Protein backbone atom coordinates (compact mmCIF):
# COMPACT_ATOMS: atom_id res chain seq x y z
CA UNK A 1 0.00 0.00 0.00
CA UNK A 2 1.13 3.53 -0.56
CA UNK A 3 2.21 5.72 2.29
CA UNK A 4 -0.73 7.85 3.35
CA UNK A 5 -0.26 11.04 5.34
CA UNK A 6 -2.53 11.30 8.33
CA UNK A 7 -1.61 14.77 9.56
CA UNK A 8 -3.36 17.69 7.97
CA UNK A 9 -1.41 20.68 6.79
CA UNK A 10 -2.00 23.65 4.57
CA UNK A 11 -1.14 22.71 0.99
CA UNK A 12 -1.64 26.11 -0.63
CA UNK A 13 -0.57 29.64 0.26
CA UNK A 14 -2.72 31.02 3.04
CA UNK A 15 -3.19 34.33 1.29
CA UNK A 16 -2.71 35.73 -2.15
CA UNK A 17 -3.47 38.83 -4.17
CA UNK A 18 -7.08 38.78 -5.38
CA UNK A 19 -7.43 37.35 -8.86
CA UNK A 20 -9.50 38.70 -11.70
CA UNK A 21 -13.23 38.98 -11.10
CA UNK A 22 -15.52 37.51 -13.75
CA UNK A 23 -18.70 39.53 -14.30
CA UNK A 24 -21.72 38.25 -16.24
CA UNK A 25 -24.81 40.26 -17.19
CA UNK A 26 -27.93 38.11 -17.03
CA UNK A 27 -30.69 37.97 -19.63
CA UNK A 28 -32.80 40.12 -17.32
CA UNK A 29 -30.05 42.72 -17.16
CA UNK A 30 -29.62 42.76 -20.93
CA UNK A 31 -33.36 43.07 -21.39
CA UNK A 32 -33.72 45.91 -18.88
CA UNK A 33 -30.81 47.87 -20.32
CA UNK A 34 -32.00 47.34 -23.87
CA UNK A 35 -35.56 48.23 -22.92
CA UNK A 36 -34.43 51.41 -21.22
CA UNK A 37 -32.46 52.48 -24.27
CA UNK A 38 -35.37 51.65 -26.56
CA UNK A 39 -37.87 53.58 -24.42
CA UNK A 40 -35.58 56.59 -24.27
CA UNK A 41 -35.07 56.60 -28.02
CA UNK A 42 -38.77 56.10 -28.64
CA UNK A 43 -39.71 58.93 -26.26
CA UNK A 44 -37.29 61.30 -27.96
CA UNK A 45 -38.66 60.32 -31.37
CA UNK A 46 -42.25 60.85 -30.27
CA UNK A 47 -41.38 63.93 -28.22
CA UNK A 48 -43.01 62.19 -25.26
CA UNK A 49 -41.61 63.29 -21.93
CA UNK A 50 -43.36 60.46 -20.11
CA UNK A 51 -41.80 57.74 -22.29
CA UNK A 52 -38.38 59.40 -22.00
CA UNK A 53 -38.71 59.47 -18.22
CA UNK A 54 -39.68 55.78 -18.16
CA UNK A 55 -36.63 54.94 -20.27
CA UNK A 56 -34.32 56.98 -18.08
CA UNK A 57 -35.79 55.42 -14.94
CA UNK A 58 -35.20 51.95 -16.36
CA UNK A 59 -31.59 52.79 -17.22
CA UNK A 60 -31.10 54.38 -13.79
CA UNK A 61 -32.33 51.21 -12.13
CA UNK A 62 -29.82 49.16 -14.13
CA UNK A 63 -27.07 51.66 -13.22
CA UNK A 64 -27.92 51.45 -9.51
CA UNK A 65 -27.81 47.64 -9.74
CA UNK A 66 -24.40 47.87 -11.42
CA UNK A 67 -23.08 50.18 -8.69
CA UNK A 68 -24.47 47.82 -6.05
CA UNK A 69 -22.64 44.91 -7.66
CA UNK A 70 -19.41 46.92 -8.02
CA UNK A 71 -19.44 47.95 -4.37
CA UNK A 72 -20.18 44.36 -3.29
CA UNK A 73 -17.21 43.07 -5.29
CA UNK A 74 -14.90 45.72 -3.86
CA UNK A 75 -16.06 44.87 -0.35
CA UNK A 76 -15.41 41.16 -0.95
CA UNK A 77 -11.95 41.83 -2.37
CA UNK A 78 -11.01 44.00 0.63
CA UNK A 79 -12.52 41.80 3.32
CA UNK A 80 -11.76 38.28 2.06
CA UNK A 81 -8.13 38.05 1.06
CA UNK A 82 -7.16 34.86 2.87
CA UNK A 83 -8.01 31.29 1.92
CA UNK A 84 -6.36 28.34 3.63
CA UNK A 85 -6.79 24.95 1.97
CA UNK A 86 -6.09 21.62 3.63
CA UNK A 87 -6.17 18.39 1.62
CA UNK A 88 -6.22 15.02 3.34
CA UNK A 89 -4.52 12.73 2.57
CA UNK A 90 -1.76 14.59 0.78
CA UNK A 91 -0.74 13.62 -1.83
CA UNK A 92 -3.92 11.96 -3.06
CA UNK A 93 -4.02 8.44 -4.50
CA UNK A 94 -5.90 7.51 -7.67
CA UNK A 95 -9.07 5.62 -6.86
CA UNK A 96 -9.07 6.60 -3.18
CA UNK A 97 -11.29 9.30 -1.73
CA UNK A 98 -9.93 12.47 -0.17
CA UNK A 99 -11.31 15.52 1.56
CA UNK A 100 -10.71 19.25 1.22
CA UNK A 101 -11.31 21.95 3.81
CA UNK A 102 -11.11 25.56 2.66
CA UNK A 103 -11.27 28.34 5.23
CA UNK A 104 -12.03 31.79 3.86
CA UNK A 105 -11.21 34.32 6.58
CA UNK A 106 -12.41 37.87 6.93
CA UNK A 107 -9.90 40.67 7.47
CA UNK A 108 -12.18 41.73 10.33
CA UNK A 109 -11.62 38.62 12.42
CA UNK A 110 -14.53 38.91 14.84
CA UNK A 111 -17.03 40.22 12.31
CA UNK A 112 -20.02 38.03 11.60
CA UNK A 113 -19.68 36.61 8.11
CA UNK A 114 -22.72 37.14 5.88
CA UNK A 115 -24.42 34.41 3.86
CA UNK A 116 -21.72 34.11 1.22
CA UNK A 117 -22.35 32.16 -1.97
CA UNK A 118 -19.01 30.34 -2.04
CA UNK A 119 -17.68 27.35 -3.94
CA UNK A 120 -14.36 25.81 -5.02
CA UNK A 121 -13.17 25.11 -8.54
CA UNK A 122 -11.66 21.66 -9.15
CA UNK A 123 -10.43 19.69 -12.15
CA UNK A 124 -12.71 16.89 -13.33
CA UNK A 125 -9.88 14.39 -12.71
CA UNK A 126 -10.11 15.23 -9.00
CA UNK A 127 -13.88 14.98 -8.70
CA UNK A 128 -14.55 11.78 -10.61
CA UNK A 129 -16.10 13.79 -13.44
CA UNK A 130 -18.95 14.75 -11.08
CA UNK A 131 -19.89 18.11 -9.56
CA UNK A 132 -18.81 18.59 -5.96
CA UNK A 133 -21.28 19.02 -3.15
CA UNK A 134 -19.82 21.10 -0.34
CA UNK A 135 -20.96 21.79 3.19
CA UNK A 136 -20.53 25.33 4.50
CA UNK A 137 -19.86 26.16 8.14
CA UNK A 138 -19.89 29.76 9.28
CA UNK A 139 -17.70 30.82 12.17
CA UNK A 140 -16.92 34.24 13.66
CA UNK A 141 -14.74 35.87 11.04
CA UNK A 142 -14.53 32.94 8.60
CA UNK A 143 -16.37 30.46 6.43
CA UNK A 144 -15.31 26.80 6.22
CA UNK A 145 -16.03 24.95 2.98
CA UNK A 146 -15.70 21.14 3.10
CA UNK A 147 -16.14 18.66 0.27
CA UNK A 148 -14.93 15.28 -0.98
CA UNK A 149 -12.63 14.41 -3.85
CA UNK A 150 -12.62 11.23 -5.92
CA UNK A 151 -9.41 11.35 -7.98
CA UNK A 152 -9.58 9.09 -11.02
CA UNK A 153 -6.16 9.58 -12.61
CA UNK A 154 -2.63 10.14 -11.44
CA UNK A 155 -1.07 13.46 -12.36
CA UNK A 156 -1.00 17.02 -11.12
CA UNK A 157 -4.42 18.61 -11.38
CA UNK A 158 -5.57 22.19 -10.65
CA UNK A 159 -7.65 22.85 -7.56
CA UNK A 160 -9.01 26.24 -6.55
CA UNK A 161 -9.23 29.08 -6.11
CA UNK A 162 -12.28 29.47 -3.91
CA UNK A 163 -14.87 31.69 -5.61
CA UNK A 164 -17.33 34.00 -3.89
CA UNK A 165 -20.34 35.07 -5.96
CA UNK A 166 -22.00 38.46 -5.56
CA UNK A 167 -25.18 39.61 -7.29
CA UNK A 168 -27.40 42.69 -7.28
CA UNK A 169 -30.84 42.43 -5.63
CA UNK A 170 -32.67 42.52 -9.00
CA UNK A 171 -30.60 39.72 -10.53
CA UNK A 172 -29.37 41.84 -13.44
CA UNK A 173 -25.76 40.67 -13.14
CA UNK A 174 -23.45 38.57 -10.98
CA UNK A 175 -19.71 38.46 -10.40
CA UNK A 176 -17.36 35.70 -9.25
CA UNK A 177 -14.43 36.90 -7.16
CA UNK A 178 -11.56 34.43 -6.56
CA UNK A 179 -10.17 34.15 -3.04
CA UNK A 180 -6.89 32.39 -2.33
CA UNK A 181 -4.61 30.59 -4.75
CA UNK A 182 -4.91 27.82 -7.28
CA UNK A 183 -2.59 24.86 -6.74
CA UNK A 184 -1.62 21.74 -8.63
CA UNK A 185 -2.58 18.75 -6.51
CA UNK A 186 -0.41 15.65 -7.01
CA UNK A 187 -2.25 12.35 -7.38
CA UNK A 188 -0.11 9.26 -6.97
CA UNK A 189 -0.85 6.02 -8.82
CA UNK A 190 -2.69 3.21 -7.12
CA UNK A 191 -0.38 0.46 -5.90
CA UNK A 192 -0.75 -3.13 -4.75
CA UNK A 193 1.26 -4.69 -1.93
CA UNK A 194 3.75 -7.20 -3.35
CA UNK A 195 5.82 -7.67 -0.20
CA UNK A 196 3.41 -10.28 1.13
CA UNK A 197 3.61 -12.41 -2.02
CA UNK A 198 5.31 -15.69 -1.33
CA UNK A 199 8.89 -15.82 -2.58
CA UNK A 200 8.83 -12.18 -3.59
CA UNK A 201 12.49 -11.53 -2.75
CA UNK A 202 15.28 -11.32 -5.29
CA UNK A 203 17.78 -13.39 -3.29
CA UNK A 204 18.72 -15.58 -6.23
CA UNK A 205 19.62 -12.66 -8.47
CA UNK A 206 21.48 -10.95 -5.65
CA UNK A 207 23.65 -14.00 -5.07
CA UNK A 208 24.51 -14.10 -8.78
CA UNK A 209 25.28 -10.40 -8.76
CA UNK A 210 27.50 -10.58 -5.69
CA UNK A 211 28.91 -14.05 -6.30
CA UNK A 212 28.15 -15.14 -2.73
CA UNK A 213 25.33 -15.48 -0.26
CA UNK A 214 24.53 -12.66 2.13
CA UNK A 215 25.96 -12.86 5.58
CA UNK A 216 23.63 -14.16 8.24
CA UNK A 217 22.24 -11.92 10.95
CA UNK A 218 24.90 -13.18 13.37
CA UNK A 219 27.63 -11.91 11.03
CA UNK A 220 26.13 -8.44 10.68
CA UNK A 221 28.49 -5.53 11.09
CA UNK A 222 28.08 -3.43 14.20
CA UNK A 223 28.85 0.19 15.05
CA UNK A 224 28.79 2.39 18.11
CA UNK A 225 25.38 3.35 19.45
CA UNK A 226 24.33 6.89 18.50
CA UNK A 227 21.62 9.02 20.06
CA UNK A 228 18.35 8.32 18.27
CA UNK A 229 19.17 4.73 17.27
CA UNK A 230 16.36 2.23 17.72
CA UNK A 231 17.06 0.28 20.98
CA UNK A 232 15.82 -2.85 19.24
CA UNK A 233 18.93 -2.75 17.02
CA UNK A 234 21.32 -3.04 19.96
CA UNK A 235 23.59 -6.09 19.48
CA UNK A 236 23.78 -7.32 23.06
CA UNK A 237 26.50 -10.00 22.68
CA UNK A 238 28.89 -7.50 21.07
CA UNK A 239 27.90 -4.82 23.58
CA UNK A 240 28.76 -7.19 26.45
CA UNK A 241 32.18 -8.01 24.96
CA UNK A 242 33.06 -4.37 24.29
CA UNK A 243 31.59 -2.90 27.43
CA UNK A 244 29.65 -0.25 25.46
CA UNK A 245 26.49 -0.23 23.45
CA UNK A 246 26.79 -1.12 19.77
CA UNK A 247 24.02 -1.58 17.21
CA UNK A 248 23.71 -3.69 14.11
CA UNK A 249 24.57 -1.80 10.95
CA UNK A 250 21.73 -1.54 8.51
CA UNK A 251 20.76 -5.04 7.46
CA UNK A 252 20.44 -3.87 3.87
CA UNK A 253 23.97 -2.48 3.66
CA UNK A 254 25.87 -3.92 0.73
CA UNK A 255 22.85 -5.07 -1.19
CA UNK A 256 23.21 -4.21 -4.86
CA UNK A 257 21.08 -1.41 -6.28
CA UNK A 258 18.30 -2.09 -8.76
CA UNK A 259 16.98 -0.40 -11.87
CA UNK A 260 13.28 -0.64 -12.70
CA UNK A 261 12.80 -0.28 -16.45
CA UNK A 262 9.22 0.78 -17.19
CA UNK A 263 8.37 0.19 -20.86
CA UNK A 264 5.25 2.33 -21.09
CA UNK A 265 2.42 1.84 -23.63
CA UNK A 266 0.66 4.64 -25.47
CA UNK A 267 -1.63 6.91 -23.43
CA UNK A 268 -4.81 5.21 -22.34
CA UNK A 269 -6.15 2.92 -19.65
CA UNK A 270 -3.26 0.46 -20.09
CA UNK A 271 -0.75 3.22 -19.40
CA UNK A 272 -2.21 3.87 -15.95
CA UNK A 273 -2.17 0.13 -15.19
CA UNK A 274 1.49 -0.18 -16.18
CA UNK A 275 2.48 2.90 -14.15
CA UNK A 276 0.65 1.48 -11.13
CA UNK A 277 2.54 -1.79 -11.64
CA UNK A 278 5.85 0.09 -11.87
CA UNK A 279 5.10 1.88 -8.60
CA UNK A 280 4.17 -1.41 -6.92
CA UNK A 281 7.31 -3.18 -8.12
CA UNK A 282 9.59 -0.32 -7.11
CA UNK A 283 8.19 -0.40 -3.57
CA UNK A 284 8.60 -4.18 -3.39
CA UNK A 285 12.23 -4.02 -4.49
CA UNK A 286 12.86 -1.18 -2.05
CA UNK A 287 11.30 -3.23 0.77
CA UNK A 288 13.77 -6.01 -0.06
CA UNK A 289 16.58 -3.61 0.79
CA UNK A 290 17.74 -2.44 -2.63
CA UNK A 291 18.25 1.14 -3.68
CA UNK A 292 15.86 1.69 -6.59
CA UNK A 293 15.81 3.91 -9.64
CA UNK A 294 13.01 4.10 -12.21
CA UNK A 295 14.06 4.25 -15.85
CA UNK A 296 11.44 5.11 -18.47
CA UNK A 297 12.44 4.92 -22.16
CA UNK A 298 12.57 8.33 -23.74
CA UNK A 299 13.26 10.16 -20.48
CA UNK A 300 16.33 10.70 -18.40
CA UNK A 301 16.81 8.27 -15.49
CA UNK A 302 15.28 9.48 -12.26
CA UNK A 303 16.84 9.63 -8.80
CA UNK A 304 18.02 6.44 -7.13
CA UNK A 305 16.35 6.13 -3.74
CA UNK A 306 18.26 4.49 -0.92
CA UNK A 307 16.64 1.71 1.09
CA UNK A 308 18.02 3.09 4.37
CA UNK A 309 15.71 6.12 4.24
CA UNK A 310 12.63 3.95 3.72
CA UNK A 311 9.85 6.50 4.19
CA UNK A 312 11.56 9.16 2.11
CA UNK A 313 12.38 6.63 -0.61
CA UNK A 314 8.80 5.33 -0.77
CA UNK A 315 7.47 8.87 -1.11
CA UNK A 316 10.11 9.73 -3.72
CA UNK A 317 9.36 6.68 -5.87
CA UNK A 318 5.63 7.33 -5.79
CA UNK A 319 6.18 10.98 -6.67
CA UNK A 320 8.44 9.94 -9.57
CA UNK A 321 5.59 7.81 -10.93
CA UNK A 322 3.20 10.77 -10.96
CA UNK A 323 4.91 12.29 -13.99
CA UNK A 324 5.80 9.12 -15.95
CA UNK A 325 4.76 9.42 -19.60
CA UNK A 326 5.49 7.25 -22.67
CA UNK A 327 8.28 8.27 -24.99
CA UNK A 328 7.63 10.57 -27.91
CA UNK A 329 8.27 9.04 -31.30
CA UNK A 330 8.95 5.34 -31.79
CA UNK A 331 8.53 3.31 -28.56
CA UNK A 332 10.84 0.66 -29.96
CA UNK A 333 13.63 3.17 -30.62
CA UNK A 334 13.20 4.60 -27.14
CA UNK A 335 13.50 1.11 -25.65
CA UNK A 336 16.67 0.51 -27.67
CA UNK A 337 18.18 3.73 -26.35
CA UNK A 338 17.22 2.91 -22.76
CA UNK A 339 18.64 -0.60 -22.98
CA UNK A 340 21.85 0.69 -24.54
CA UNK A 341 22.21 3.33 -21.82
CA UNK A 342 21.77 0.72 -19.09
CA UNK A 343 24.27 -1.56 -20.80
CA UNK A 344 26.96 1.10 -21.14
CA UNK A 345 26.38 3.26 -18.08
CA UNK A 346 29.21 3.07 -15.54
CA UNK A 347 28.01 2.10 -12.12
CA UNK A 348 24.54 1.10 -13.27
CA UNK A 349 22.33 -1.03 -11.04
CA UNK A 350 23.40 -4.62 -10.49
CA UNK A 351 19.84 -5.90 -10.61
CA UNK A 352 17.38 -5.14 -13.39
CA UNK A 353 13.61 -5.44 -13.13
CA UNK A 354 11.63 -4.63 -16.27
CA UNK A 355 8.01 -4.16 -17.20
CA UNK A 356 7.95 -4.99 -20.90
CA UNK A 357 5.22 -4.40 -23.45
CA UNK A 358 4.36 -7.34 -25.79
CA UNK A 359 6.27 -6.08 -28.82
CA UNK A 360 7.20 -9.38 -30.45
CA UNK A 361 10.43 -11.26 -31.00
CA UNK A 362 11.50 -9.21 -34.02
CA UNK A 363 11.18 -5.85 -32.27
CA UNK A 364 14.50 -4.02 -32.11
CA UNK A 365 13.88 -2.89 -28.56
CA UNK A 366 13.18 -6.43 -27.36
CA UNK A 367 16.31 -7.74 -29.09
CA UNK A 368 18.44 -5.05 -27.47
CA UNK A 369 16.80 -5.66 -24.11
CA UNK A 370 17.47 -9.40 -24.36
CA UNK A 371 21.18 -8.68 -24.36
CA UNK A 372 20.94 -7.27 -20.84
CA UNK A 373 19.98 -10.69 -19.48
CA UNK A 374 23.32 -12.32 -20.22
CA UNK A 375 24.69 -11.50 -16.76
CA UNK A 376 21.87 -13.49 -15.19
CA UNK A 377 20.50 -10.84 -12.86
CA UNK A 378 17.49 -9.54 -14.78
CA UNK A 379 13.78 -10.32 -14.43
CA UNK A 380 10.88 -9.16 -16.58
CA UNK A 381 7.13 -9.01 -16.30
CA UNK A 382 5.55 -9.02 -19.75
CA UNK A 383 2.03 -7.63 -19.99
CA UNK A 384 -0.47 -10.21 -21.28
CA UNK A 385 -1.59 -9.25 -24.78
CA UNK A 386 -1.04 -10.49 -28.33
CA UNK A 387 2.67 -11.32 -28.92
CA UNK A 388 3.35 -11.52 -25.18
CA UNK A 389 4.49 -15.16 -25.39
CA UNK A 390 7.06 -14.57 -28.12
CA UNK A 391 8.31 -11.45 -26.33
CA UNK A 392 8.84 -13.46 -23.14
CA UNK A 393 10.56 -16.29 -25.04
CA UNK A 394 12.93 -13.82 -26.71
CA UNK A 395 13.93 -12.40 -23.33
CA UNK A 396 14.28 -15.85 -21.74
CA UNK A 397 16.67 -16.92 -24.49
CA UNK A 398 18.76 -13.89 -23.54
CA UNK A 399 18.95 -15.00 -19.89
CA UNK A 400 15.98 -13.18 -18.37
CA UNK A 401 13.59 -14.74 -15.86
CA UNK A 402 10.11 -13.86 -17.11
CA UNK A 403 6.49 -14.02 -16.04
CA UNK A 404 3.36 -12.65 -17.63
CA UNK A 405 0.66 -10.54 -16.03
CA UNK A 406 -2.64 -9.07 -17.17
CA UNK A 407 -3.81 -6.59 -14.54
CA UNK A 408 -3.00 -5.39 -11.05
CA UNK A 409 -5.01 -8.19 -9.45
CA UNK A 410 -2.69 -10.91 -10.75
CA UNK A 411 0.52 -8.86 -10.38
CA UNK A 412 1.38 -10.37 -6.94
CA UNK A 413 1.20 -13.90 -8.36
CA UNK A 414 3.35 -12.98 -11.36
CA UNK A 415 5.90 -11.24 -9.14
CA UNK A 416 6.07 -14.23 -6.79
CA UNK A 417 6.55 -16.56 -9.76
CA UNK A 418 9.41 -14.59 -11.29
CA UNK A 419 11.07 -14.12 -7.90
CA UNK A 420 10.89 -17.86 -7.18
CA UNK A 421 12.46 -18.51 -10.57
CA UNK A 422 15.49 -16.56 -9.41
CA UNK A 423 15.95 -18.94 -6.47
CA UNK A 424 16.62 -21.73 -8.94
CA UNK A 425 19.28 -19.64 -10.71
From TrEMBL:
InterPro entries: DUF58 (IPR002881). Residues 1-18 have a biased composition (Low complexity). The chain crosses the membrane at residues 37-70. Keywords: Membrane, Transmembrane, Transmembrane helix. Residues 222-328 form the DUF58 domain. Residues 1-21 are annotated as: Disordered. This is DUF58 domain-containing protein. It comes from Demequina zhanjiangensis.
Amino acid sequence: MSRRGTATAATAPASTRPGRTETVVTARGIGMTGGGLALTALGIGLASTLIVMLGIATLATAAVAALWLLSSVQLLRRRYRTARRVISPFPLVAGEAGTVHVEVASSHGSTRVPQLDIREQAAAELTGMRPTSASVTRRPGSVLLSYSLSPTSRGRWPLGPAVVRAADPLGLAWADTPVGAEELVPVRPRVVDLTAAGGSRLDGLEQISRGARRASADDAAVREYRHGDDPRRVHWPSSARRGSLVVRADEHAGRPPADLLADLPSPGEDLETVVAAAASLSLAVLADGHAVRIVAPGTRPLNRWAAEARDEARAGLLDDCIDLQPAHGSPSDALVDAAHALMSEPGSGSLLVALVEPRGEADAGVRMLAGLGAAGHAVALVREAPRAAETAHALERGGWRCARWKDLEDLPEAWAAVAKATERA
